[in-house]
Amino acid sequence: MTDRPVVPDRPYQAMAIALAPLRVAIAEPAPSIATVQAALDTLQQTISQLPPASGLEQSLQVEIHKQWRLLQADFAFLRAARQPATLAQRQTTMLQRLDQLTSYCESGDRL
Fold first, then answer.
1. In 10 A of CB 32, how many CB atoms?
2. Which of 38, 81, 86, 97 has the most CB atoms less than 10 A away?
3. Is the pTM here over 0.85, yes or no?
């Protein structure tokens, strides 16, 4: 038995798995920037491994990449937040994007 993680054969399932630690890191009352960055890096690797697609799946991937870019911008704003209210607003925005990405993963699994 090895210590290697099991990689799902479905890329959208792998993406959903990568979203989970990011959600936990962002939801912390005082999120660790390093932890969030590490989770974002993992998610980026997973997204970059999505297979080429056409038709409806290509449209789905375009939306995934759009939300990914917006999530990166949100993270930049989160890092810059100094006031507790602003930090909470940035966290909420990022969590909403993660919800959207999770729904895309579910849709991708059904294709």
1. 11
2. 97
3. yes
